[in-house]
Amino acid sequence: MKLIQIAKLVLSEDSWGNNPSAAAPQNPGIPPTTQSPKPSPSVKFYDVLKDYQAFQTTIDSQEEAAKKDLNTTLTKALVNKEVTVRASKGAVGQVEKDYTLTVVSVSITYLKDKYYVILKGKDKKDYYINTGFKIKILSSGVEAKEETPEAPKASAQPNGKGQVGGIVYPQNMGIGSNRNVGA
């Protein structure tokens, strides 16, 4: 078969496909193309996306409400109290040990397809607690309050700047320092 004959067949098939009233080409080696039946006007379609999105919204709002309730309950029970917990310190998947800390805040986080309860201690570290172990409450925050001595107050200077620490003159060591300005 020559190239010109192939081109004519392709063109005739294309025009036959666009015009259903045209007769099918009579080539024994090429089967006629079938057209899909047109949908009848009585066929109805249902858009499931709208209902699925409403379902997802309901689930998300219920999860958020449950998460908020758990956070409120844990905050009332643990914040400002010294506790001992079995937890991993700093990140999920670290080695779990027993830690004693004073709880500053509680948060619930969804990581790696699971919810985690995170306690933040006074040391500003995150403790991902193992919920399978009981939390031992050692003392209330009022009883365990550490007394820190107050830092001495800076004395007022006539120019309005107070002396801080043992520094007598202001320290300016950046690019804008007087030492870096051409003199």
The string of secondary-structure elements, in order, is HHEEEEE
Largest sheet: 5 strands, antiparallel
Q: What fraction of residues sit in β-strands?
A: 15-25%
Shape: elongated
CATH topology of the domain at 51-140: Protein Yojf, Chain: A
- Oligomeric state, counting identical vs distinct chains: single chain
Mean of pLDDT: 77
Shape-level CATH architecture of the domain at 51-140: Distorted Sandwich
Radius of gyration from CA coordinates: 38 Å
- Share of helical residues: 25-40%
Low-confidence stretches: 143-149
Number of helices: 2
Q: What's the end-to-end separation, in Å?
A: 91 Å
The structure class reads alpha+beta
Total number of strands: 5
CATH class of the domain at 51-140: Mainly Beta
What would you say this structure looks like, in words?
The chain has 183 residues and is of the alpha+beta class. It has a domain at 51-140: Protein Yojf, Chain: A (Distorted Sandwich), CATH 2.70.180. The protein has helices at 3-18, 48-78; strands spanning 81-89, 96-111, 114-121, 126-129, 136-140. Strands 1, 2, 3, 4 and 5 form a five-stranded antiparallel sheet that branches. Strand 1 and strand 2 (96-111) form a beta hairpin. It is elongated. It starts with a helix and ends in a 43-residue tail after the last strand.
